[in-house]
Amino acid sequence: MGICDLHCHLLPEIDDGSVSRENFERMLQLYRESGVGSIAFTPHVYNPYVTTNISMLRGTYEWAASIASSMGLVTYLGSELFVGTQKVLKSVPIKNTYSLVEFGINLPPANLFERLEALAGTGLTVIVAHIERYRWLSVESPLLARFKDLGALVQVNVEAVESGLALPYLHAGLVDIIATDNHGEESLPGRLLSVLGNWPEVYQKMERMGL
């Protein structure tokens, strides 16, 4: 069935992704040719820096899922939840199981773990998106142990693996997922499989997720 890209922004006209409806099928074809078997579309929600067209989300996903299905690709609708000041965290979970979350770069949100614990208490597994971006969450940070105690999974971006930014997390065995965070770059599906070929232990973790 192939691996799943668990983080991307490819639904046309929904958030800050750049894929048009006319080029959407071509992008999916590149995923299929690269050996990716499934895709989780994860548009931004509650991100103060990104406008998301929530009213079009379900309809656009159904359109996209129909095209993907005709090409033999499995799709999931999820979201990338920005954890800011909201008291209660609400997301669109991937396969009703995984909640992808992101944070501000410079400082952790207030009462972060209390809110994440409440989210996990609903039966969802938290995925921390592109962990390499957060200046307050280095490999040595004791906060990483708290994420792991929560049962959270750690995701890094393909580009961060290639640049070396994600390597400390990989060498420490902390990474559970490598994903594209694709906003429209056609080379990323192939690069995802190439990077995973160099980190088979992460590939195996992703296979066990059942997506």
UniProtKB/TrEMBL annotation:
Gene3D superfamilies: Metal-dependent hydrolases. It is an enzyme of class 3 (hydrolase). It catalyses: O-phospho-L-tyrosyl-[protein] + H2O = L-tyrosyl-[protein] + phosphate. It comes from the Bacteria. GO terms for molecular function: manganese ion binding; protein tyrosine phosphatase activity. Its EC number is 3.1.3.48. Keywords: Hydrolase. Belongs to the metallo-dependent hydrolases superfamily. CpsB/CapC family. This is protein-tyrosine-phosphatase. It comes from Sphaerochaeta pleomorpha (strain ATCC BAA-1885 / DSM 22778 / Grapes).
